[in-house]
Amino acid sequence: MTIYTLTPGKVPLLVSMPHIGTHIPAELRAHYVPRALEVEDTDWHLARLYNFLDTLGASVLLPTTSRYVIDLNRPPDDAPMYPGASNTELCPTRFFTGEPLYQSGQEPDAAERARRRDVVWQPYHSALAGELARLKGLHGYALLWDAHSIRSEIPWLFEGRLPDLNIGTASGASASDAITAAVVQACSAQTQFSSAVNGRFKGGYITRHYGQPANDIHAIQLEMCQSLYMQEVAPFAYDEARALWIQPLLKKMVASALEHCVRRYEK
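Predicted structure:
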């Protein structure tokens, strides 16, 4: 099965959506509790929401495998992203609500986790790294936008309700302050949607690992509330009317980051 699709673009922008995959291989499905097969913690419909990327000329990397098999935004050594808080693992064993994903005694052992890392995680990251290298080779720099969405309220992971738009730059380590400011300014120009920078979500492994401003590669994660564009409960339907409200701002945020990069490097 195809692990990912990569659509190369013409501008120095790569958009990664590591949690949109929904596929659980047939040979693994019996190990999960029945509820898990509904893959409720997917970053639903993001490719549809970001349907403007081709007009920007961006490269787009999309996986097919569910995060319930392996989380493409976790480090290969499975170190916690947020020490002291509830975390999901490289090969998650719990729903976002805290209940077990697997039938009792069916959780993946070390050998199975290593197999999934080799078969799914590594090819995705090889493609991601390769495309960033291609873009930097062409333009002298690259911008990585890591796109995510999540239910607005998940007590096991965070208290209360999330801001609508959560911008993460590993507390400033993964992107220049000026590029982050350009994204924040795009948000600040409106009052309909709330936002935060490096709050509960500071960026996962992809943002933290690939964002290297000193090496002219900048990475920004956007974790947005699913309530902005879809139903947050089953059947997780796309809401066209809501999506049309948020899409112009979303496009402006991505375009603002890209435009600042162009001005910064192509004077």
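Summary: The chain has a mean pLDDT of 95.
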